[in-house]
Every structure is written in C-alpha cells, then in structure tokens.
C-alpha cells in the first residue's frame, strides 16, 4: 500500500524527508520509485 502512495504523490527526482527511525521498506520503496 505504501508503494502505491509513493507512486501517486511523488515523481522521480522529488525530495522526501524521512524521520529516523523509519521502516526499511519505506526507504526501499522510495528508492524503487526514483524519489
């Protein structure tokens, strides 16, 4: 579900702020989408 949200809201090259600690799968989903 999180990957669908990332694909919908973010475009390739966008910047995203993630606060630590974060879930590993959230970080990987942003890497897969090119954000």
TrEMBL record:
<dbReference type="InterPro" id="IPR015424">
    <property type="entry name" value="PyrdxlP-dep_Trfase"/>
</dbReference>
<protein>
    <recommendedName>
        <fullName>Aminotransferase class I/classII domain-containing protein</fullName>
    </recommendedName>
</protein>
């Amino acid at each position: 579900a999180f990957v669908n949200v990332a694909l919908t809201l973010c475009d390739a090259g966008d910047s995203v702020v993630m606060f630590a600690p974060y879930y590993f799968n959230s970080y990987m989903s942003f890497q897969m989408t090119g954000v």
